[in-house]
Amino acid sequence: MKMIIVAGTPGSGKTAVLIHALRSLKERGLNSSVIKIDCLYTDDGKKFEKIGIPTKVGLSMDMCPDHYAIYNIEDMIDWADENDSEYLIVETAGLCHRCAPYTVNSLGVCVIDATSGPNTPLKVGPFLSTADIAVITKGDMISQAEREIFRERILEVNPNCKVIEANGLSGQGCIELAEEIVKSPEVSLDEEKLRHSAPLAVCTLCVGETKVNKKHHRGILRRIDGFQTYEGE
Amino acid sequence: MIDKITIIGGYNKQGEKEPVEKVFINRGEIFGVVGPTGSGKSSLIGDIEQLAQEDTFSKRKILVNDEEPSYEDRTNPRKKMVAQLSQNMNFLADMSVGDFLSLHAKCRGASSKCVNAVVNLANTLTGEPIKNDHELTILSGGQSRALMVADVAIISDSPIVLIDEIENAGIRKHDALKVLSGHGKIVMVVTHDPVLALMTDRRIVMKSGGMDKVVGTSEAEKSLSKKLNKIDEFMLSLRDKVRNGDVIEDIELGDVGI
Ligand SMILES: Nc1nc2c(ncn2[C@@H]2O[C@H](COP(=O)(O)OP(=O)(O)OP(=O)(O)O)[C@@H](O)[C@H]2O)c(=O)[nH]1
Ligand SMILES: Nc1ncnc2c1ncn2[C@@H]1O[C@H](COP(=O)(O)OP(=O)(O)OP(=O)(O)O)[C@@H](O)[C@H]1O
Ligand SMILES: [Mg+2]
Ligand SMILES: [Mg+2]
Ligand SMILES: [Zn+2]
Ligand SMILES: [Zn+2]
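The joint structure predicted for all components is written out below.
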């Protein structure tokens, strides 16, 4: 099984780009299954099913979608196996800029919207800096100079990634992504590890505290001046 | 050195083969792209900008000196053969003019000394001056266009230049075209303006997403072009008057001299 994990900010064009890439794999007789992980709502399932690709949707609700995706990887792989798929594609919501859902041997694909401004690559954190491939979408909406600057910024954050400029509407660049999917390594789950450890999330807020006053908080707490304490036993 | 590019036709919006199968464009040539709105003019030059290899809507393929360009040539901005002035009228990037230009100069491997030259050149094309510390996003449509033109001319200086509707932002189009089309370049101009269309050597006519035919500018058209230029200059002088708050109550067509 080859596992392709696709992360990116909401609406960046993950589904649009994947639809083109997976269609081209299908034309070559290669089967994929898609899992879409989102928080509250998504209609991506329908879009993938329209092109005849088995799709499953998972909603993480109040949990970080990347954490949720990671807990479920094993089941997802089993399910893709049942579908006789060579490729398991996981599209995640990517709302949490501290997590990156890629595992060491998966193909980590970060989809990033060029209209979001040239500072975005500096803001998005590990899901860009640990990706194998950065797909830049919506370049059709900005000037050539802005596109070139955006690309440079991505390479500053992740000098080793391959940059693909794609258009989710026309499909330009998506065949190149399909090529990379074909070339990606096999994963076996036993020893598989995350590339980037999940962030600190051990405080009273994590377990449902809603009061804002400081005196109610326990766990690892960080103040705005950078001072960090551990409150509790 | 780029001596020619070849556009190998693909498919139009209906999925039918384009009537024009192949177009060769040579060094030094100015080529027009005309056609109704939505006929695929911008898409055609988009294909050339990306040096498309049957990987866009149209499935066109672009050759440079009869060869497929390498992946590196297609993507690395330092090696880019194509400079494009797209149809976009505004910048979305959230930074100052000066920062933006020096970043772009860095991407293209150009000297950061270019920055002032670009701003000065842009200011010869637009009305109210642009300053280095202006935010890009507050520039007007015309100012943005002027800055894009100057940026393409100086920083993106490339052997292939693609220009999408230079006439649409109220900047000085003849000057802008002159600035962009340096000697020995391949220049493609998308236009709805007959004055510009007749200034080209040949033009592609687009229809429903496909290249419908290629028309060479005839001798008769070339001499007509001179007349059209005079009319155009006359219109521009009226434009300047209106812009400056003058009142035009009568015109003397004899002034045009045709
Ligand atoms: N202009 C332009 N629009 C695009 C491009 N790629 C995607 N879009 C549009 O952007 C919108 C969002 O695209 P999606 O593919 O649904 O984005 P997503 O990342 O899957 O979104 P979520 O799954 O909701 O997080 C759609 O309306 C697409 O048509 C592109 O390259 N250019
Ligand atoms: N060969 C093609 N196959 C499929 N769709 C196409 C093709 N060419 C163009 N289109 C689509 O047609 C639409 C209009 O094309 P485009 O923007 O290039 O038109 P235009 O001639 O530049 O129009 P305008 O004069 O308004 O700028 C676009 O959405 C484009 O994707
Ligand atoms: Mg999606
Ligand atoms: Mg257009
Ligand atoms: Zn998270
Ligand atoms: Zn917490």
